[in-house]
Amino acid sequence: LGGLSLSLASRKTSGHDLQVGDVLRSSWGYDQTNIDYYEVTRLIGAQMVEYREIACQAQETGFMSGDSVPAPGKYVGEAKRARVSDYGKRDSIKVSCCANAYKVQPRIIGGMKVFGPDHWTAYA
Questions:
Q1: Which strand (E) or helix (H) includes residue 113?
Q2: N or C, where is the chain less crowded by C-beta within 10 Å?
Q3: Could you tell me which of 123, 118, 4, 124 has the C-alpha nearest to residue 59?
Q4: How many separate helices (H) and strands (E) can be counted in the chain?
Q5: pLDDT, tens digit, for every residue of 69-99?
Q6: Does pTM surpass 0.70?
Q7: In whole angstroms, what is the distance from residue 89 CA to residue 12 CA?
């Protein structure tokens, strides 16, 4: 147990890798796949962030299914705060009782962030 407490103590002082402007993605649902996007808007101490839900650009690609990409800066929700955790060795935040959001790694093309599409379904 001593090693566990040392590990947790070192994590508390080391913080996290999220930065202002990072986009986070949450995928959740039962009998369908919902995709929600969030943007980190402020760092609060070593363990907390402020974030806001952002819009997406979506295109239906099949019957009640399609692809979407985040639209950074197009806020659709009020600012909220969350503690950053390293669940599964990846920084994440809890955005609801049943969903976490994880950082999306964009490609940089011509100096711009380009996000790959996420697949969604709406069967229910």
A1: strand 112-114
A2: N
A3: 118
A4: 1, 10
A5: 999 999 998 999 999 988 767 889 999 988 9
A6: yes
A7: 14
Q: Would you say 56 and 68 are in contact if contact means Cβ atoms under 8 Å apart?
A: yes
User: Where on the phi/psi map is residue 111: left (φ > 0), alpha (ψ -120 to 50), or beta?
Assistant: left
DSSP 8-state secondary structure symbol assigned to residue 68: E
Length of the chain: 124
> pLDDT tens digit string along 31-54?
899 999 999 999 999 999 999 999
Measure the CA–CA gap between 28 and 23, rounded to whole angstroms: 17
- 74 Cβ contact list (under 8 Å, min separation 6): 54, 55
Q: Which two tokens stand for residue 63?
A: 């019957």
Tokens of 90: 């990846």
